[in-house]
Write a structure and sequence with these properties.
The complex is a heterodimer of chains A (96) and B (423). Chain A is mainly β. Chain A contains one helix and six strands, in the order βββαβββ. Chain B is globular. Classes of the chains: A mainly beta (96), B alpha/beta (423). Bound molecules: flavin-adenine dinucleotide and zinc ion (ZN).
């Protein structure tokens, strides 16, 4: 069982949270100048890294706030928790 | 042309050979395929020695006459999802494209033991999909109608009939069983036998099966693949076919492109073995669990993915707990049974729960991926269609709709919503 530190409530068990997928995706625009390829990239294509994954989580059965998590997809170790809108910390093995 | 028969392999299984070895104290059995060393060059290289890679090699050799080919496997064959899956085989999909493909695959399964001369223990014990509320019943009606329109066998029964056919179901479950959809031709097979049977049959036609050989990079010149790099040396080839399930994004990145895939852990477990109690496969979407009993007597239990990306090949506890709760509500008598093993495989999930079997952005590099939680049933069908794709450099008509392009055109085949079944 993972223990995740909600920035608002503190350390809680994994079952209170839900992973919302890859973080830092930016909606392309303006909408009438976006190609089908760009929409596909935005909606469906993902980095899917084997290693450090930057992802959004929500404290679903808690404060219901969203935040970002840097997590290893190999060990599930949580390397950092940071706020929405914040840039990810510099971590070894991060792609971007 | 068949290879000259090496003396140290057993080439044909029959009632006579069983009888002979019975008298011979089983001492005469020899390995079923060669553990080949990689050559410097092949006409085609398949990456991944799971069911999909091995079936593709077999059909390439058998149907398309390509025998200078190799299957490269980083571990041992069948050690990935093929050896970890719960072996449910069915074709109860919603959309015509899926139904046509999966029923083709199911038909190949029906003749596979004979075709491979290898007992895959395919048991068409039927597959039940049960509903616990009015809306679930409506969804079953819709599914049955879709299946019948697609020419696939399907029967709808009320809750009393489900209980009559599966008497060990609880008399008073928390969520009553109101109806069940039965696909009689569905069932299970032996997971390892699929890998081993295809490996042996491919080997017999000259295919090199190379284990402990990890692909670590690609040689790509002017947008076309010219070879692969491996932990056992470089190999020249003009055709490279991926069949690496949950690791597809990792290999695509080595080849310089991204994919619409997320890798998740999917877990399963088996109980201690008991006398026969369950002679069919039962799935409850509301509980998110499914269950069957293996020939060894173990209850084989599975559920949904762990809901965050993972390459860790181990499942988390909350999902197992949820799974056990569902099983115990349906079958209270299983509540005191002990788990024997629990494990996970890394599955490659696409947004619409439909795979890709086709071309990639790199010339000569082919894609078989996105099977997610349900690609075991697809192994014969996809092996056949993928072999066609590789040999002719164009998709097979049955898998042409399963292209990468659909994410741009919007022609998704949304089985996640359509059939509503994960596996
Ligand atoms: C717990 C569980 C239950 C399931 N239940 C069902 C079910 O009931 N019915 C159903 O239809 N499907 C089921 N599935 C899904 C099914 O198992 C898969 O879709 C299918 O087995 C995939 O086969 P494959 O050959 O593509 O992949 P795999 O069998 O995973 O083979 C891929 C191989 O590629 C190798 N590989 C990876 N990277 C490299 C590299 N760089 N170089 C060389 N080799 C590499 C791996 O070692 C692996 O052996 C289940 C899956 C799991 C995990
Ligand atoms: Zn919180």
């Amino acid at each position: 069982m993972l223990q995740i530190s909600c920035p608002y409530c503190g350390a809680r068990a994994e079952i209170e949270f839900r992973c919302g997928g890859q973080a830092h995706l930016e909606r392309p625009g303006p909408h009438d100048q976006v190609s089908d390829r760009q929409w596909a990239e935005y909606l469906f294509y993902r980095d899917n890294p084997k290693g450090v994954s930057l992802e959004r989580w929500v404290h679903r059965f808690g404060c219901r706030q969203w935040f970002n998590v840097a997590r290893s997809t190999l060990t599930h170790e949580i390397l950092a928790v940071y706020g929405m809108g914040e840039q990810p910390p510099q971590l070894e093995g991060t792609k971007r | 042309m068949f290879l000259q028969e090496p003396k140290d392999l057993t080439r044909h299984y029959s009632a006579a050979s069983l009888l002979r070895e019975g008298f011979n104290k089983q001492k005469g059995w020899a390995p079923a395929w060669r553990d080949a060393a990689p050559k410097a060059e092949y006409d085609a290289v398949i990456i991944g020695g799971g069911g999909h890679g091995l079936a593709t090699a077999y059909y390439l050799a058998k149907e398309f006459g390509m025998t200078r080919i190799a299957v490269l496997e980083k571990g041992w064959i069948g050690g990935g999802n093929t050896g970890r899956n719960t072996t449910v085989i069915r074709s109860n999909y919603f959309f015509p494209e899926s139904a046509a493909f999966y029923d083709f695959s199911l038909k190949l399964y029906e003749g596979l033991t004979r075709d491979l001369n290898y007992n895959i223990m395919f048991s068409q014990r039927g597959m039940w999909n049960i509903a616990h509320d009015r809306h679930g019943v409506e969804m079953l009606h819709r599914a049955v109608n879709a299946m019948l329109l697609n020419g696939v066998d399907a029967e709808l029964h009320d809750g009393a009939e489900v209980k009559r056919r599966i008497p060990i179901l609880s008399d008073a479950p928390r969520y009553p069983v109101m109806a069940g959809l039965l696909q009689k031709r569905g069932g299970t097979a032996r997971h390892d036998a699929i890998a081993w049977g295809y490996a042996r049959a491919a080997d017999m036609r000259g295919v090199d099966i190379v284990q402990n050989c990890e692909v670590t990079g690609f040689d790509i010149v002017d947008g076309a693949v010219t070879g692969v790099r491996t932990t056992r040396g470089d190999i020249k080839t003009g055709k490279v076919a991926l069949a690496v399930a949950g690791n597809t994004s990792v290999l695509a990145e080595l080849a310089g492109f991204r994919l619409p895939i997320i890798s998740y852990a999917l877990q399963a477990c088996v109980s201690e073995p008991v006398k026969p109690v369950l002679d069919t496969v039962l799935l409850s979407i509301s509980h998110g669990v499914y269950i069957s009993q293996s020939d060894k007597g173990e209850l084989v239990i599975g559920s949904a993915i762990d809901l965050y990306p993972s390459y860790a090949q181990r499942g988390n506890l909350p999902v197992m707990e949820h799974t056990a709760a569902g099983v115990v509500d349906l079958f209270p008598r299983f509540s005191r049974m002990r788990f024997l093993r629990q494990w996970a495989g890394i599955v490659d999930v696409m947004h619409d729960s439909t795979p890709v079997v086709g071309l990639s952005p790199v010339k000569g590099l082919y894609l078989n991926c996105g099977w997610g939680t349900g690609g075991f049933k697809a192994i014969p069908g996809a092996g056949f269609c993928y072999a066609h794709t590789i040999a002719k450099n164009e998709p097979h008509p049955l898998t042409a709709p399963f292209s990468l392009k659909r994410f741009e055109t919007g022609a998704l085949i949304d089985e996640a919503a359509g059939a509503g079944i994960a596996h």
